[in-house]
DNA sequence: TTGTAAGCGTTATCAA
DNA sequence: TTGATAACGCTTACAA
């Protein structure tokens, strides 16, 4: 059912129908009702394809997400989609799998589709591609990680604060041999967490030994192998700050296998708080991000830009420390 | 950059460029190379909007997912997206939140967008809407749950078998007072799991007391309140089969609060196996679904249909029992 | 108040 | 082998 079909049936022009739908006040009450009745009767809805071509906007926003299986991103996507839907936008999901190349392909795709906006969890690469969005007038929002672009709205956590909270907690429990498993160096959030960790130890005058700073890729396996290295050290740490909970899962697996007791032998704090964290053995002490709020905020910022707000905004959300059973006094 | 721009620059017609891109063999080698070089130089890519209007297909597939925060669906979405991307399709995600009305809105939206296909985790409602897809030639695949439509490809788990495995495991451990928290009656997967549970108890000549069969909505809170009811019974069960792990989390929370020890006081089996299940306290005995395979299969079935395969296919994947620490001998 | 018609960027048919 | 041109379904000046 197209405008043409409907126009024939009602013996009015397609323009009238289109108007009756988008600017009802511009058409005579009698015609309007006749049209609206027919529209309703047939369940007519304008095709998005035709409209998009004409208006040059798709009312679709693309979300390039680092890892959809990660509870943090899944929750963020849910929040984004809720706000988008409430405002008549659809959400095209692209899973980049923490891979710069996959991110690039995703961005290309969104570019072709002429999406109205993009929420991007950037790997820090693909800057040229991102600039093409700016050039083509597509609104960009950095989420969780900064892409490095200047003129984009940004929604992140205050990662430095989060890591500080974690480190401080460990120090206050009496730990001095404190290690960290950081995220990839090219990710701004990982860098922030590492910086906060270092800063705090320094404030407490605790030297950070280089062998206590390891890097993973935010996936469980990398947590596992980092733990392996840590515990093959002459003097393994008594406390560990892990930059996300997926890597922490890897650490826990290693600890189980080697009968390293958490928190007796090793205190563990990590980032993110999926439902499960509290049911783990032991329940995990974590840094909580206000995930849903962050997702909503990103979409709202995007909508604001689409509606013409111009000044760039950066929102850094405050994290919270939730103490459970995985950390203990030295 | 559009075909027109490029045509002007190269002084050929837009038709030639379009052809050079889609049927290179039909254009003279010299022209072809000239065109391709310019295309490459400018990074020209046909706009999806124009193409979609002309070809009447969007190369987009819609996925209506029950709950994106649920690890099962997140993993399925990842698999679906991988296969889709590899075949030049994008994925529009709609989160229905286990809500029939939200599902309806999502389906409407996908209808407007003229998506090429839909993978639907049906709530069992919105049948008329689904029929509209069939009428408009949009390929439909039921995933995880059957919509009730006849002529659609279907990817599900063998839920009866999964529940049987769970129930049998409990019986073999010596339990006789076995309860279940089932999913919503209107969902085919929930019905299958309940049927498998009942069938197995019957086979073992164990009477299913009506007060041992409770219904939840697949979310943690409903697991919590069901557990509450179960333990206010004169004779609480010694074993419990929960139809998904989200509800199991609710049960665990209740057990913690009431100092009910799992598995000493209560053996617990549930469905689904997110990474965390093995790290919980105790590690959870679960029925595992081959999630990624199921997601891939759904997308492949969809692609098959898009390419003209006609016979309807139904795939029921076999579940696996993984015994961990949440179940024990009576 | 309504209709006519142009145009969004593409593909595909037909002639040249 | 190439080019002109007609759609695809919609919105929106502009004219009637």
Task: Please give the CATH architecture of the largest domain in chain A.
Answer: 3-Layer(aba) Sandwich
The DSSP helix count of chain A reads 12
CATH superfamily of the largest domain in chain A: Response regulator
- State the largest interface: A-B, 53 and 53 residues
Strand percentage of chain A, roughly?
15-25%
Gyration radius over CA of chain A:
25 Å
Low-confidence stretches of chain A: none
CATH class of the largest domain in chain A: Alpha Beta
Number of strands of chain A: 12
SS content category of chain A: alpha/beta
Oligomer state equals homodimer
- Outline of chain A, from the CA principal axes? elongated
- Give the strand order of the largest sheet of chain A, numbering strands 1, 2, ... along the chain: 2-1-3-4-5-11
Largest beta-sheet details of chain A: 6 strands, parallel
Structural features, described:
Two copies of one chain form a homodimer. With 330 residues, the first copy, chain A, is of the alpha/beta class. The first copy, chain A, folds into three domains: 3-53, lambda repressor-like DNA-binding domains (434 Repressor (Amino-terminal Domain)); 55-156 and 291-317, 3-Layer(aba) Sandwich (Rossmann fold); 159-288, Response regulator (Rossmann fold). Helix content of chain A is 45%, strand content 16%. The first copy, chain A, contains twelve helices and twelve strands. In chain A, the strands form two sheets. A six-stranded parallel sheet of chain A has the order 2-1-3-4-5-11, with helices on both faces. Chain A has a six-stranded mixed sheet with strand order 7-6-8-9-10-12, with helices on both faces. The radius of gyration of chain A is 25 Å and the shape is elongated. The model of chain A has no long low-confidence stretch (mean pLDDT 94). At the A-B interface, helix 4, helix 5, strand 2, helix 6 and helix 11 of A face helix 4, helix 5, strand 2, helix 6 and helix 11 of B. The structure holds a DNA duplex (16 and 16 nucleotides).
